[in-house]
């Protein structure tokens, strides 16, 4: 199923650490392809990417509903703490 166990684990760690950058289109082409290739054969990594994608979409919807940047609210509360 997997070409090489060491490469699989290395790519597994890559996906875990770079899922957000992947979804934000911040990865270079080779890294993007590695993430996509790995996520096709690794259900936990596929699920991680899809879960993060859903979280991002949910947060974007929150911003649209409230008209408030969530980060600004968090920063203000941290300053007041």
Model description:
- The chain is mostly helical and about 80 residues long.
- It has one domain (about 5-80).
- The chain is about 85% helix and about 0% strand.
- It contains four helices and no strands.
- It has helices at about 5-25, 30-40, 45-65, 70-80.
- Helix 1 packs across helix 2, helix 1 packs parallel to helix 3 (about 45-65) and helix 2 (about 30-40) crosses helix 3 (about 45-65).
- The model has no long low-confidence stretch (mean pLDDT about 85).
Short structural description:
This protein has 81 residues and is mainly alpha-helical.
Keywords:
mainly alpha; 81 residues; 4 helices
Give the secondary structure arrangement, pairings included.
Elements: H1 5-23, H2 29-41, H3 43-66, H4 70-80
Strand content: under 5%
Count of structural domains: 1
Q: Would you count the extended β strands for me?
A: 0
Distance between the termini: 51 Å
- Report on the biggest sheet: none
Strand-pairing-aware structural class: mainly alpha
Give Rg in angstroms: 16 Å
Helix content: over 70%
Query: What best-fitting shape do the alpha-carbon axes yield?
Result: elongated
- Summed up, the helix count is 4
Whole-number average pLDDT? 84
- The string of secondary-structure elements, in order, is HHHH
Q: List the uncertain runs.
A: none
